[in-house]
Amino acid sequence: AGYSSVAQAGIVKDLGLSVAQYSMFGSIMTFGGMIGALFSGKVADLVGRKGAMWFGQIFCIAGWLAIALATDTIWLNVGRLSTGFAVGLFSYVLMQSCGISLFYVIGNFVHWRHLALIGLIPCVLQVVSLFFIPESPRLLGKWGRDKECRASLQLLRGDEADVSEEADTIKETMVLFDEGPKSRVFDLFQRRYAPSLVIGVGLMLLQQLSGSSGIMFYVGSVFDKGGFPSSIGTMILAVIMIPKALLGLILVEKMGRRPLLMASTSGMCFSSLLLAFSFSFRSHGMLDELTPIFTCIGVVGFISAFAVGMGGLPWIIMSEIFPMNVKVSAGTLVTLANWSFSWIVAFAYNFMIEWNASGTFLIFFSICGAGVVFIYAMVPETKGRTLEEIQASLTDFLQ
């Protein structure tokens, strides 16, 4: 995800890409993620969770090789699309922070082709490690493979554990699930699901239209635009990337979903305003000595605030507000909305910065401000509450 930021200068110089061509390269990953997310559930049901991850790593490896060996925009885009498809199949918030941090550091010292080859390493490691990871017991139970289900549970619980009761419970649950009604996407558009749908899609819209994808994918160009050395800026981000992700995991249980989400969005709002002032001062030749510092504080503040709350909490809340009978369909629709908005921002971002950097961040400031109001008015607190209690609170919007 962070590759397009640190590799931008080298790729543009070596291959002579225009702003439009590099914007397509940077953003097409999200388009691939959109496709991968749509098929992730079906792929996992057909070939298993491990099979889906192996399948995804094939696209990861092929994508990085295509980028490393690319001589034109076609192979660059094919490679980026392929890695995006793999990310759409599986995504890990904490490990994603680790990967972005790593690339932000080594991207300052390594040629972009070599950097793409380094991206192969975690893919190969996961391919090897998957041989030692058991398949999901619930999926094996769903497939009717009771013996393998018990063996997988035994491996997960330990040799001394009695897994008979848990295995029988899984079998009964899967039977009830198969006999129950199957949800479809169109079922979501019933009046009783309207509040959950508005909250789920609304949070994903705010998460992406706040400018997060653009800043994350092209953070080096933001630093350069503000007169702050991009190599130093990305190093600062690399140092704080993992601690802030861990901080978010701790705070979400201390503060609750809703307060942390509001605090995160408020921080993004303030940081966007600071960046807007910073670029405005620079365009008018004012406060030249302070503008780079404002830029650094604004970028670091925005990404930190995003990671602590808005980066992961919409996914948690989405999983908690939809009833079980529509959870799969809701997950598909909400994920598609997220990747769609992400592609729009990632593609348009470079054009917006070229048009007016200050105006761009004023737009992001306005969206974040609207996000704070939306969260306050619509999003319920879900921490420590059962699904029934959450659904009861949401029905108040329908009264």
UniProtKB/TrEMBL annotation:
Family: Belongs to the major facilitator superfamily. Sugar transporter (TC 2.A.1.1) family.
Protein name: Major facilitator superfamily (MFS) profile domain-containing protein
Organism this protein belongs to: Thlaspi arvense
InterPro entries xref list: MFS_dom (IPR020846), MFS_ERD6/Tret1-like (IPR044775), MFS_sugar_transport-like (IPR005828), MFS_trans_sf (IPR036259), MFS_Trehalose_Transporter (IPR050549), Sugar/inositol_transpt (IPR003663), Sugar_transporter_CS (IPR005829)
Cellular localisation: Membrane
Keyword Transmembrane: yes
Gene Ontology CC terms, in alphabetical order: membrane
Principal place of residence: membrane
Bilayer topology term: Multi-pass membrane protein
Keywords: Membrane, Sugar transport, Transmembrane, Transmembrane helix, Transport
Domain Major facilitator superfamily (MFS) profile, residue spans: 1-383
GO molecular function: sugar transmembrane transporter activity
Transmembrane portions of the chain: 22-40, 52-71, 83-106, 112-133, 197-220, 232-252, 259-280, 292-316, 328-349, 361-379
PROSITE patterns according to UniProt: MFS, SUGAR_TRANSPORT_1
